[in-house]
Amino acid sequence: MIPPTGRRAAGVLLHPTSLPGPGGHGTLGADARRFIDLLAAGGFSVWQTLPLGPVDQSLSPYQLKSTQAGNIELIDAADLVAQGWLPEAAATASTSGRLQACYAHFRDHADAPAHAAFDHFVQQQRGWLLPYSLFEHHRRSLGGQPWWEWPAAIRMRDPATMTATLASGRESLRSIAFEQYLFDHQWQALRNHARERGVLLYGDLPFYPDLDSVEVWWHRRLFQLDAGGRPTAVAGVPPDYFNADGQLWGNPLYDWEAMQAEGFRWWIAHIRGQLRRFDLLRLDHFRALESYWAVPAGAATARDGRWQPAPGHALLQALQAEIGDVPLVAEDLGTITPAVHALRDAFGLPRMLVLQFAFDGSPQNPYLPANHVENAVVYTGTHDNDTTMGWYAGLDAGTRARVDGCLASTPGDMPGALIRAAYASPARLAVLPMQDLLALGSEARMNLPGTPAGNWRWRFAWEQVGEGLAGHCRRLAVLSGRLPAAAAS
User: Fold this and answer.
1) What is the mean pLDDT of residues 348-363?
2) For the CA atoms of 423, 429, 435, 436, what is the dihedral angle to 10 degrees?
3) Which of 213, 260, 296, 370 is deepest in the core (most CB within 10 A)?
4) pLDDT reading at 5 higher than 90
5) Which residue in 284, 332, 386, 404 is the catalytic one?
6) Which CATH class is domain 1-48+352-489?
7) Active site residue 245
8) Closest to 270 (Cα-Cα) out of 213, 341, 232
9) What is the dihedral of CA 449, 451, 456, 461, to 10 degrees?
């Protein structure tokens, strides 16, 4: 059930990198806490982020080096200084310089309880933290090469070589683990701040790991790889009306038979780890739990792929048996078959509704407000959409007239009309991108799918947040029954 309380609620979609702050991107520090305070004042009870893991040069939070580790670029230097963990003189160094200084200061000056807390974290998270520390140690020492280009003994995780690395690389491994300890410490502090303000954290799970990730290196048996570690087939989606070649993502595919034989242990650990950070989880590309598009390795496009069955029902049953009712939202956008709907509904998972997709003229369009259902999360748009202002400006005259007629709005009433439609929807949770709350145009778009550069860089400034924004949103929450119970009393 979304939200877990069963009440109607409203939330905001904003990745932490888009927060204001003195550096080149947002962090988990004071501006994140101020943002949570803004949400609470505006009657919001959910903050949705994109995936939080370590990214590559593209900055895409969907191309991660690890599904469990945190992005150390989000660690806030000012908070480290304030807590006495980082000498102030090192606060303006690069991320690696700051964290090296922080680790050295901790190693040489922290008291016994602080060391015990770190050691407890290392032991508690050992299942993913040890592989990640080894992966990062080798990746950094080998100049960032992808793991399949590493020396054979490391690439194949030769036991003697791994044992030798644990001894010879001890300080490096502990320093990498300490980086994750700092991330976790700041994230848990931020989560506590959110709880105190009545705000739930809503995370995002990419369906497939990146090929150059610790998951694929460490768990090769769970992926469709050849003896050299290269994919035999890769992920994508088939051709459709919008793309004659389909989409070739290139991620390695799961070996579902191997995963099921192990009782889906990897997935259970993955979801448990995310629930340490989040109250709700969106599962990207949910349809691949029913069947997935497998493209032969080396194919130039996704045209040559074919559908392969996946044991989604067995996986969701295993998660339910091990964890209980997992607060998952099914990302079920695009062309979805009745079998995918049946899988989603068999476990009572909420669906996604995107208002920007509603106005193709079909009265059966599931995204039309009149067709919305309660067990759903409604969005004006997602990180892959243009902002509502940019979307509306790009519509042809006929579609724009259809939008205005459906919403009983005027051309000057965007994005307000779409925002009000989201609040009024029967969907239990309504989520609004921060760009729409600020009425920003296409210049504030977070991602344009299919483009290799220029994405994931948008940030807002506090000067853009008008004094009346929180009050206006709070009134909409009251009128639509989305104000949190504590705020209403």
Assistant:
1) 97
2) -20
3) 213
4) no
5) 284
6) alpha beta
7) no
8) 213
9) -100
Q: At which residue do the structure tokens 């079920």 appear?
A: 332
What gap in Å lies between CA 176 and CA 170, rounded to an integer? 10
384 noted as active-site residue: yes
Determine whether 76 is an active site residue.
Answer: no
CA distance linking residue 308 with residue 291, whole number of Å: 5
8 A C-beta contact, residue 56 and residue 212: yes
- DSSP characters over 140-154: HHTTT--GGGS-HHH
Structure-token pair, residue 125: 């998270």
The proportion of the chain whose per-residue pLDDT surpasses 70, expressed as a percent, equals 98
Asked whether residue 228 carries a pLDDT value surpassing 70, the answer given is yes
Q: What is the model's pTM?
A: 0.96
- CA dihedral of residues 342, 345, 349, 354 (deg, nearest 10): 70
Q: Is 264 left (phi over 0), alpha (psi -120 to 50) or beta?
A: left
Domain boundaries, the chain: 1-48+352-489
Angle at 121 between CA 115 and CA 123, to 5 degrees: 105
- Please name every residue paired with 202 in a beta bridge, in sequence order, or none if there are none: 48, 280
Q: pLDDT value at position 304?
A: 93
The Cα–Cα gap between 54 and 289 comes to 25
Helices and strands (DSSP H and E) totals, the chain:
19, 12
Q: What is the longest distance spanned by two Cα atoms in the chain? A: 70
Q: Give the pLDDT confidence of 279-298 residue by residue, as tens digits.
A: 999 999 999 999 999 999 99
Q: Which entry of 31, 215, 290, 331 is annotated as an active-site residue?
A: 331
- How far from each other are the two terminal CA atoms of the chain, in whole angstroms? 23
CB < 8 Å & 24+ apart, contacts of 114-120:
118/177, 118/178, 118/181
Q: Is residue 205 helix, strand or coil?
A: strand
Angle at the Cα of 60 from the Cα atoms of 286 and 473, rounded to 5 degrees: 75
Residues in the chain: 489
Q: In what order do the strands lie in the sheet with 429-433?
A: 328-330, 280-283, 200-205, 46-48, 9-13, 429-433, 376-379, 351-354
Residue 223 forms beta bridges with which residues? Answer: 254
